[in-house]
Prior knowledge:
The chain is α/β, with parallel strands linked by helices. Helices cover 31% and strands 21% of the residues. Strand 19 and strand 20 (420-422) form a beta hairpin.
Amino acid sequence: MPAVVIIGAQWGDEGKGKATDLLSSRIDYVVKFNGGNNAGHTVVIGDQKYALHLLPSGILSPGVTPVIGNGVVVDIEVLFDELDALIARGIDVSRLRVSANAHVITHYHRTLDKVTERFLGKRQIGTTGRGIGPTYADKINRVGIRIQDIFDEGILRQKVEAALDQKNHLLVKIYNRRAIEVDEVVESLLSYAERLRPMVADTALEIHQALEADKIVLFEAGQATMLDVDHGTYPFVTSSSATAGGASTGSGIGPGRIERVIGIVKAYTTRVGAGPFPTELFDASGEFLRANGFEFGTTTGRPRRCGWYDAPIARYTARINGVTDFVLTKLDVLTGLDKIPVCVAYDVDGVRHDEVPVSQSDFHHATPIYEEFDGWTEDITGARTFDDLPKAAREYVLAVEKMSGARISAIGVGPGRDAIVVRHDLLG
């Protein structure tokens, strides 16, 4: 069976968890392949709302094996807190698998993340302060701690000592903070070993065997394409590969296995943190989107920056990821608007750009060129077929589909698990 990848096609918070949940009855594995607890999925099942940060959203689906891949950075304390919260609500979490090669977020990574961000002042990136960037930096610098190291106290101690030799100099001499004791870190990590051990596996091998056995494996990206460390709005990005290509390196499967890439895109655009955002709104329309869409971060609680749909970004993410299908979420949020603008191109110093400019400076100064579409007032949360939608809503979907580089195969029309209109089979 082919592997299927779900990616965010904007700056995150597009509703990837809901798309995963939509497919849950047909898939066998859900693999998170990048990021850490710096992003979140909100999934609504009946009258129950679940906010997940580190765990794959497939953990909520009976019979699905959720996997934390080698490309993820794991805060073990957060992992167990999330698991305990789900257990308390009657969710079976016994199937969870964690890659032995995933890197571990430690106390010193969180500390460094916070102090370095504050040190940047007005040049802050807007990180979540959860240690994600410093952990990935240690991974690349080959001084990281991996999950498997926790089961060998001698190796763990050697690695923590090597890491703190440098980091304590930074903390004490540059940031005027106290040094972190090696024993403090080692003892904390060792305390998780026995509970963690049954979950840890060679997940790359397990995923390969699942695909060979004709299982359907869904790969779930954290963050989104415009936050990808290579292809996003650098330096205002995350520290990992949030694109479809990251599914291969972050899980250990060959790229030839991937045949479907599902891009999740909101019917408008949001962003959390600093960085360019051409369609951002600072008026009543922005407040309308924020209030109606409940646009506050699942992980941070920060209000999201809101703007109109950006078609050049959708085309860019379709191209970068090889998107085969889009899922358009939160169409219901636009209900009640008289006119709905869509960004179709940018103006940069009097020059029209139909695609995302390669220059960061040009993109930062890009002014959106809009085309307006008629709005609708009818409640669409009960729609279950495309024809159930009002004419104006159908025309809006068809218009953005034509601009976005791939077909729109499903449409989110409300927060509920079943509030979705399916136009094409996402797996076929």
